[in-house]
Automatic annotation (TrEMBL):
It comes from the Bacteria. SUPFAM superfamilies: NAD(P)-binding Rossmann-fold domains. InterPro entries: NAD(P)-bd_dom_sf, Sc_DH/Rdtase_CS, SDR_fam. The keyword Oxidoreductase applies. Keywords: Oxidoreductase. This is Short-chain dehydrogenase. Belongs to the short-chain dehydrogenases/reductases (SDR) family.
């Protein structure tokens, strides 16, 4: 088991990515601190599978943008499970907002949910990791740290902030044996609706803009999170790993792989 008795803190356990990561890592012997907006209701089946596999689970519902809440929670969790070995920050709030007409409050909501929470959690967990001179931080980010959405500039800005947080944290926490890396993930089923745009055609026929015309899954993501959380990734630090099946390499529609052999 690659994560035997390691304590993993997942910041959005209720999301599709969170559920897939829980299931994958529990099979490798991990224990969990799970932040769940539903208070555990939406991940009941996942938690039961974890416990059946021998994992210990500590479920909370806290505001990740409040340092005091995060620090108090980590102290309570440490009393039951031990300190955190692996932080998986997978917050991913997407809402339409325009540079021209967007409201400041919505901009701040998105930045706080996706970027400020990453900073707060990294700072708090980093103290525990520094004390034992080891740890892993994995940010589940997005290809939109690189590519505009055409629908939510604040989302792109928040993921761009996480990209630079990865690099800054890697050189600071890296001195204490902590690896900090980001996964720039996408696209998956439903992203055409999530990033629906009046000015961009990026997600038109987006499945076929993946060279092999096969979209990724959250299980694919969970496999990469596992690798970055394990000892095999000891020499990866400060990396942005794009996991998109080659989607962002697409540039000419007439060469797309389509059903029936047409291009």
């Amino acid at each position: 088991m690659r994560l035997h008795d390691k304590v993993v803190f997942i910041t959005d356990a209720d999301s599709p990515s969170g559920k897939a990561i829980i299931d994958r890592l529990s099979g490798e012997g991990a224990h969990f601190v799970l932040n769940s907006v539903s208070g555990g209701e939406n991940i009941r089946a996942n938690v039961e599978r974890c416990q059946s596999a021998g994992s210990k689970v500590f479920v909370v519902n806290i505001d990740l943008c409040q340092s005091s809440e995060v620090e108090d929670m980590l102290e309570s969790a440490a009393g039951q499970l031990g300190t955190v070995d692996i932080l998986v920050h997978n917050n991913n709030v997407v809402r339409p907002i325009s540079v021209e007409t967007g409201e400041e409050a919505l901009f701040l909501d998105i930045m706080n949910a996706n970027a400020k929470s990453a900073f707060i959690c990294t700072k708090a967990v980093g103290k525990q990791m520094e004390a034992k001179q080891s740890g892993k931080v994995v940010y589940v980010s997005s290809i939109h740290a690189e590519k505009p959405t055409g629908s939510s500039f604040a989302y792109s800005a928040s993921k761009g902030a996480v990209k630079m947080l990865t690099r800054e944290a890697s050189i600071v926490l890296g001195r204490h044996g902590v690896n900090v890396n980001a996964i720039e993930f996408g696209p998956v089923e439903g992203d055409d609706a999530a990033f629906e745009s009046d000015i961009s055609t990026l997600y038109h026929s987006y499945r076929y803009k993946v060279p092999n015309a096969v979209l990724g899954s959250y299980e694919d993501l969970a496999n990469l999170v596992l690798f970055l959380s394990a000892d095999e990734a000891r020499y990866l630090n400060g990396a942005d790993i794009r996991m998109d099946g080659g989607f962002l390499m697409h540039y000419m529609d007439f060469k797309m792989k389509r059903p029936g052999g047409s291009v």
